[in-house]
Amino acid sequence: MDLSSLDIKYLPGVGPKKAEIFAKELGIHSAEDLLRHYPYKYVDRSRFYYIHEISAEMPFIQVKGQIIRFEKVGEGHNQRLNALFTDGKETIELVWFKGVKWVLEKYKTGIQYVVFGKPSPFNGRFNIVHPEIELVSQLPPAEQMGLQPFYNTSEKMKSSFLNSKTIQKIIFPIVQSIKTGIPETLPAYLLKKFALLNLTESLVNVHFPKNADHLRRARQRLKFEELFYIQLNILQQTKWRDQHFRGFIFGQIGHYFNSFYNDYLPFELTGAQKRVLREIRIDVASGRQMNRLLQGDVGSGKTLVALMTMLMAVDNGFQACIMAPTEILATQHFASLKELLGDIGIKFALLTGSVTAKKREPIHEQLRNGELDILIGTHALIEDTVQFENLGMVVIDEQHRFGVEQRSKLWKKNVNPPHILVMTATPIPRTLAMTLYGDLSVSVIDELPPGRKPIQTFHYYENKRQGLNQFIAKQVEAGRQVYIVYPLIQESEKIDLQSLETGFEYMQEVFPNYKISMVHGKMKPAEKEHHMQKFVAGETQIMVATTVIEVGVNVPNASVMVIESAQRFGLSQLHQLRGRVGRGAEQSFCILLTDYKLGSDTRKRMEIMVRTNDGFEISEADLKLRGPGDLEGTQQSGLPFDLKIASLAQDGKMLEIARNAAKEILEDDMKLEKVENRVMAEQLRKMKTNTLNWGSIS
Ligand code: ADP
Ligand code: MG
């Protein structure tokens, strides 16, 4: 039977109502979808621990023993219940924040229980919050106490009694039904080459592991399959593109590039800038269309590389454009280009949402007739009305802010796609880059311009505010400028705006003698620009803002970045914000202010920020803490697929193996037409119909 066409509502224990919840919450429609809903963890329930063996790293443990006494702590809303539990030798604390009455009715002192849960150190002892408790007398026989799978559910599912245990029950008969064998999705020669478990065995064991070794092999095979098909798909697309598009050839380094380099460049390029320019130079002369990612920490001088890359295009009779994610940033690029290019004789213009229709007309006209060499802008420049005579080079700044679709529109601005340089200060971990971009080449600026001092970062709680204010005053007296940043996210826009305004008023009260600007996303662009400019010009000393100032803004005199409610920002965002200071010769500081109550992940984020300025280290840490779906780099653009079992943070090695395998196969049979490869063509076809975004370009 074809499990992909078996609707789960016909499965025992499901029915139409639960089927609907499955579809809504997890995107599960068919029996096959359920089979591919893998457990996210397994707990070994064959082993009982003694309390003295417990360590903080243990994910889950079970201990046999009895409750010595109960104790209610706190009042009303803050009430919790503690129970002292002993294995006969030592004790741990069991803790409940909810259901106190129910717990007291259900569990008694002096009875033999098994408690099960995650231990955490607390007040010099271990505790388990909301443990599972079972009577020792009711435990299943030892041989059934093996690896217990845990399935992802949601709050909504749990309230309809679709918890991990019920899911396991629903899956059980499906797994039974496939034991006679289901069609393999990988070619036999790959299974053999990498000694992989077949699909049937893998699916059976991933849900009901025979033992730890079978589970390991099952997961390995399923991870390989997942990573392999992602790579096969993206590499096939890239290959196809290479065959169908030629890249424009910029054969010469010409007048503008040379004259800029010799006569206009205000400083020596760093070694890293030079290396990256050489890499780009080789690409654009190769006849292949360049698709290059430029990673470089904030302040590393990417703009200059962008400019000189665009000059290569202009020297060869092409137009170039640079797209920035915000109006402020585009305007700032325009200003820097103006300053850098001086009277060199290149024509460039700024196109943003706030350029009036009347002023756009001549820009459009000059782009079409080729008079304009370089266009600087925001999203406005991907509009259909913007047409170039001969666009040869596209630079996308802070690329993570743009979606795949927006980027693909730029591709279509010329008959052949232009060369593409995407720049980011938020490094993308290697595994993620490989997965998102196929053969995208990566350049790295790993060197800051000379004379910069590393930013010092501190994490303070609210109680340090007085001291912080004194510190701010000192810096301002020394002629520096200060940013105070507040979070602003969609869901609580109103509250956030309020706290920003309160913060602004507070600063005015504390510093009556200083001039203070305020900028936020709800302002009209012109108003924003006005206040921003005042800060840039040094007319105001303190800038109170939301994250609108996050990206690219360059005020070298600003030396302090205070981030309010820092717990609400992700690592990459914190790193981006911090990058707004440390751009001049002065020692700069970043202060992370947080609540007292921090989760362990948040505390880790703060620790990492305090410890390192290295963007690569930060992005790897971010990937490990949050997983790729939440990373800055992928949030907006979206991962074109869902990883069900493999992890980009942990399976880098396997990703590489899968990628090489895919490459080798495509070298030999790009269309996957050979008999032994047809199973892969069929798999790819299935994946593409299942996933909307698959056809996306890199
Ligand atoms: P980012 O990589 O964050 O976009 P920018 O391009 O804005 O960095 O550069 C940050 C600052 O460093 C700018 O003021 C720029 O003029 C300056 N800069 C860039 N390259 C050099 C260099 N080689 N030597 C000295 N200063 C430089
Ligand atoms: Mg920049």
Protein architecture, described:
The chain has 698 residues and is an alpha/beta fold. The strands form 4 sheets. Strands 6-7-4-3-2-5-8 form a 7-stranded mixed beta sheet. Strands 12-13-11-14-15-10-16 form a 7-stranded parallel beta sheet, with helices on both faces. Helices cover 40% and strands 17% of the residues. The relative contact order is 0.09. The protein has 4 domains: 79 residues, DNA polymerase, domain 1 (Orthogonal Bundle), CATH 1.10.150; 90 residues, Nucleic acid-binding proteins (OB fold (Dihydrolipoamide Acetyltransferase, E2P), Beta Barrel), CATH 2.40.50; 191 residues, Rossmann fold (3-Layer(aba) Sandwich), CATH 3.40.50; 157 residues, Rossmann fold (3-Layer(aba) Sandwich), CATH 3.40.50.300. It is built from 24 helices and 22 strands. The chain starts with 14 loop residues before the first helix and ends in an 8-residue tail after the last helix. The C terminus is likely disordered. The protein is globular. Bound molecules: adenosine-5'-diphosphate (ADP) and magnesium ion (MG).
Estimate nothing, just give the exact number of structural domains: 4
- List all distinct small molecules, including ions and cofactors, that are bound in this structure: adenosine-5'-diphosphate, magnesium ion
Inertia-based shape: globular
Tell how many strands the DSSP assignment holds.
22
Q: What CATH architecture label of the largest domain applies?
A: 3-Layer(aba) Sandwich
User: Which structural class do you get from the secondary structure elements?
Assistant: alpha/beta
CATH superfamily of the largest domain: P-loop containing nucleotide triphosphate hydrolases
Radius of gyration: 29 Å
Mean pLDDT comes to: 87
Report the CATH C-level class of the largest domain.
Answer: Alpha Beta
> What name does CATH use for the topology of the largest domain?
Rossmann fold
In which order are the strands of the major sheet placed?
Answer: 6-7-4-3-2-5-8
Q: Total number of helical segments?
A: 24
Distance, first to last CA:
38 Å
Approximate strand percentage: 15-25%
Low-confidence stretches: 628-638, 692-698
Helix % is: 40-55%
Q: Sheet bearing the most strands, described? A: 7 strands, mixed
